[in-house]
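Hi R.,

Here's the chain you asked about this morning:
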Amino acid sequence: MKRPSILSILLSIMVATTLFAQTPKNPVDYVNPYIGNISHLLVPTYPTIHLPNSLLRVYPERENLTGNVLNGLPLIVSSHRGSSAFNLSPFQGEIKDIRHILPLSYDNEVIKPFYYSVDLDEQDIQVQYAPSHQSGIYALNFQQPEKASYLVFNTRNGELSHDGKNISGYQNLDKRTKVYIYLETDIKPVAIGTQQGNQLGVNDKTTKGENAYFILHYPNGTAKLNVRYGVSFISIEQAKKNLRREIKDFDVATLAEQGRDIWNKTLGKIEVTGVDEDAKTVFYTSLYRTYERMICLSEDGQYFSAYDGKVHSDKGRPFYTDDWIWDTYRATHPLRVLIEPETEANMINSYIVMTQQMPRAWMPNFPEVTGDSRRMNSNHAVAMVADAYSKGLRNFDLAEAYQVAKAAITEKTLAPWSAKPAGVLDQFYKDHGYFPSLAPGEKETVPEVHSWERRQPIAVTLGTVYDEWCLSKIAKALGKEDEAKHFSERSLNYRKVFNPVTKFFHPKDTFGVFMPDLDYRFPPGIGGRDAYDENTGYVYRFDVPHNIEDLMHLIGGKQAFVAALEDMYSTPLGKGKPDFYHIYADHSGNVGQFSMGNEPAMHIPYLYNYAGEPWRSQKRIRTLLRQWFRNDPMGIPGDEDGGGLTSFVVFSQLGFYPITPGLPMYVIGSPTFESATLNLGNGKRFSVVCENYAPENKYIQSAKLNGVSWNKSWFSHEDLMKGGKLELVMGKHPNKAWASGADAIPPSFSMSDK
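And here is the predicted structure, written out as tokens:
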């Protein structure tokens, strides 16, 4: 590589001193987007560059952190696991060597939430990037200006046009969803055209189709080129408006500084102190991950909806989509209730609006930019609604939310990964209270059942009875007493699939016969889908978050419950890892049969509190955080899914967890920091403060809540929202007496609630 220019040296110094000063550190300085970029088994996290909940997101185009080359430079990622729509490849050389996307050897990469830089070492090009909400800037430094300089601009499936200087166009995402772009550079190209051997087809003003692309040729001697662009889901003209509204010049450093300020303000809503710098990195990186989704699609007061294929006014409320609710209802949405209540209310309102735009009024459960993909099992958007309302959010139509959530559970099939109406299995569920498995030797004939995802009878039953409990809570709030009683009674139907002999939840066929010869370590089907889903019977044994007290009674009482938990952590996989993970790839982050890498297990470490042994939860939570959530490229044990796993980390490092969305209380764990303060959405502050703090002191010796002695292993949402302080005296060894009495147990649904 040639010696860098004075300009590039000055810019590098400015970026290093202005953007990345490490003393003192601000919250965004702790974020390490590379955590989890190498997956244990399935999908890695991606080092996403974006602003909080923004329409525009990008990350390097490669399989994971070990990728040898970049496949061009990204312009917008429309799905959090997808490739970039559109692609930009800078190039120096001969036209004959150009392709629609160029493999770019790279080095010296730097990624921050608000900034990206990389050296394209074979091309001798230095790249810098910064995003805004709906637009972005690339700054390109060509180190061999004597060579011809080019940009290759690609749409993977769409149409591009140019006017001699600027490029605009679209890419098809599906049959009716397009993403649009408007792009311009600070230097006018010598020519723009399509590739025709070693020449440019300069008469081509438009190119379209699969991997259609233009080549932009810049004057020899071009040392620096700045590229700015806007994106839109509405139109090319709107993409241009978005660019003009957000970016006034070609200054990448200024845009990065603006992004840094936004991230600091956002992440600073939670302030932590302590000597463990790695813990802070894990914490703020986890918090950053929770802002990847949902994304705001509003553009100047309007948005495109894939739910009816039309452009709508947002009526003064931002419209959000892109949420995998099966993953995020457990902790991501509850976290937003605390620190982003206005945003959370707008997201719930967006769910309702999406439903109104759909052919059938069934609440979405996996809304994306291209529509509702109806993935996984159950319809947990109802939990999002119940939790928000129980915690005081009112800025959405509860009655409408109830109707569309109820319809999603009672009118749509419960069969996983299906958007079909209710069928014979759903009628069986209504009549008998459980989703049936196949009988031995029975072939699947029910059309609603996905051929690969299977019936998932226990996962569907347990997920739906919890959803019905959430419906009962909303119905009661609306004064619908009969419906509240009906759904409350139905929420106890987990008992119908509980095997009293084995003390596990056990699939039954339509004859009421338990599946024979079932080994809970090795349920049948890929991912155990003929019985459970993505996890084995050991995780689903504890999947009754709305009535843990009754589950403990079914298992045999407090001592038996603790023994069952310990047995789960102690029981080995039972097969060699290649054989086990070939079938149960999602069941990762294992401690015995426990799976830290999959969301249905996240509440389980806190369950010891219900048996009066919170010290065991304190031990387990800290151990799991240390083992599985680390400041390294493999520091996330499973698919992260837009805050699904990392919200568990945020809560657990703070020292409490929303174990039952819909019940306004939090179960206490073991805080990681000397102090942590939440700047609540109501303007107040709530702090968790540790006396006798040291990173190894994980056990609570005593507690005070707002100055009053506190001997319970939980506290209410009302206590938290009043502001104040939870003071915990910590120690290296457990105080087994703290919060161990019958009056210390977290609240749970019981028969008396009917």
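One quick note: Residues 1-11, 13-22 have pLDDT under 50 and may be disordered.

Cheers,
M.
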